[in-house]
Amino acid sequence: MISATKWVPRGYATEFPVKYTMDDEELERLSELAKLKIEEAKNEMEDIEDATEQDVEALEEKAKQDEQIDNDPELKEFGFDTYDDEPDSKLGLEGDGMDTDDDDDDEDEENEDEEAGELNLGSTHKVEGKDGEDPYISLPTQEDLDEEREELQILATDNLILATKTEDEISHLEVYLYDPEEANLYVHHDIMLPSFPLCVEWINYNPREQGPGNFAAIGTFEPEIEIWNLDVVDGVYPEVILGERDEKEKKKKGKKTNKINAERHTDAVLSMSSNPHHVNLLCSGSADTTVKLWDLSNGKAASSFTFHTDKVSAVQWNPVEGTVLLSGGYDKKAIVSDLRSEDKKMWKVDSDVESMNWKPCGTQFLVGTDSGMLYNFDVRNESKPLWTLQAHDSPLSSFDYNKYIDGAIVTSSASTREVKIWRETNKDDKYSLSMVANRDLSCGKVFSVGFNPDQACAGTLCAGGHGGELKVWDMFGTKAVREAFDIKSSNHSNEVIGQAFDDEEEDE
Q1: pLDDT tens sequence for the chain (508 residues)
Q2: CA-to-CA distance for 39 and 248, rounded, in angstroms?
Q3: How far is the C-alpha of 312 from the C-alpha of 221, rounded, in Å?
Q4: What domains, with CATH codes, occur in the chain?
Q5: H or E element in which residue 112 lies
Q6: What gap in Å lies between CA 366 and CA 353, rounded to an integer?
Q7: If we measure between CA atoms, which residue out of 472, 451, 399 comes closest to residue 7?
Q8: CA 358 – CA 361 distance, rounded (Å)
Q9: Residue 489 burial (CB < 10 Å; 0-12/13-18/19+)?
């Protein structure tokens, strides 16, 4: 299944991603990480030893009971001590003269060994090729290297799409390359993850060089946030781990705590948002009820906020004001805060908040809830929403508002296979909404949708869900959508790009 997706805008990925190499600096960094992993492993071994001691005590207690049975004639005659033993007849061992095939097998093996020795099949003579080279090892030619480099090439017209995927209890981040000119979509490379991923965010910041970059932040059921370099293929460890636990906390791994820590999360990371104005700032919401503001330049939490009384399921920076944050949670509240001060505004919704997003204007925002409702609020009006929409009959898992096509909204539900396209119109401050199209993208029940962030492909969206296949669809390939948003060009394909989904694999 695909649990989260995120577009990477064009022009930020390096043209030729590099293969991971181990230099002295990287070796030193990995050595420090390895020490932490070793300490964690030691702590886990201590837990195992404690459990083993309990098992030994249980065995000793059983031995005492067996001895009591042996010493008590009345108990011994019932044969309690042999109840777990299988009769010899079941094992086929009756009779002292029972013939087995063991001797014959041994003789056959001895004969085979003798024959192998006569034929010298076990010879270990060294075979050398030309100029002393090993003929069984072939090094890549320059042509091979050039071909591999070309396969990794990312053009300026390509998009990357991040998708967190879990299959057979193994989780990883798949980095897809989408070529709109060729209508081509494939996995460019992937990254193994330590735990089930819940959210992913693209970051235009390099924590090591403290400049522009192409990175991904991953939130999982663990309280840490991993930052990975997307320009490196076959990476082993993340560049940075935000909120890494100390040794005492790692020893308590698996034990939930209700304690709030100002320096790190203490429960799963449910949502993240990268600041578009201050690219070194990342905000995260957690099941521990806190919102953390991370400074990627030093990898530490700059601030911790307790705006909510339950899990924080969504956070989103304002696209215009770089210090204003939108957050929502399972306390059924949407809160807008200016992190420079204690000023904040709050709106109530009907059920748990599932997703949130700002409109491009920066004064209005949308909230999707567990009941399938979509709300439109204005920060200047705390009394009521501008409009509400029953977008789905089940939880509204994800939605997006198009920043280039005024009034275009896409929604999805975790209980249905289709995505819906809506049109919002506003005349004299009177809003109306109408569904323009709905389509099954063959990716199973949909958990995540999003519009392409580049204006040249503004009508293109991606979707991922239970089926485990990422899909890309140009909604302008549908005539009804073109007419609704007054799109003149008809040079759009209505084909859904991606591998076909097998309905038999879908869990009804």
Answers
A1: 999 999 999 999 999 999 867 666 666 656 666 665 666 666 666 666 666 666 666 776 766 666 665 665 554 554 555 545 554 444 444 444 445 455 555 555 555 555 444 444 444 455 555 555 556 566 667 666 666 778 889 999 999 999 999 999 999 999 999 999 999 999 999 999 999 999 999 999 999 999 999 999 999 999 999 999 999 998 889 999 999 976 566 555 555 566 899 999 999 999 999 999 999 999 999 999 999 999 999 999 999 999 999 999 999 999 999 999 999 999 999 999 999 988 899 999 999 999 999 999 999 999 999 999 999 999 999 889 999 999 999 999 999 999 999 999 999 999 999 999 999 999 988 999 999 999 999 999 999 999 999 999 999 999 999 999 999 999 999 999 999 999 988 789 999 999 533 444 444 4
A2: 10
A3: 13
A4: 394-508 (2.130.10.10)
A5: helix 102-119
A6: 11
A7: 451
A8: 8
A9: exposed
DSSP bridge pairs for 295: 281, 300
First to last CA, the chain: 14
Amino acid 467 reads G
Helices then strands, each counted (H, E), the chain: 7, 30
Q: Write the single-letter amino acid at 391.
A: A
Q: Which residue has the tokens 């090729």?
A: 129
Sequence length of the chain is 508
Which residue in 309, 263, 303 sits closest to 288, CA to CA? 309
CA distances from 265 to 43, 118, 422 (A): 21, 68, 37
Question: Alpha-carbon distance 473 to 475, whole Å?
Answer: 6
Alpha carbons 369 and 356: distance in angstroms, whole number: 9
Cβ–Cβ under 8 Å, residues 365 and 349: no
Extended strands (E) in 339-476 = 344-348, 353-358, 364-369, 373-378, 387-390, 396-401, 408-413, 418-427, 430-440, 446-451, 460-465, 471-474
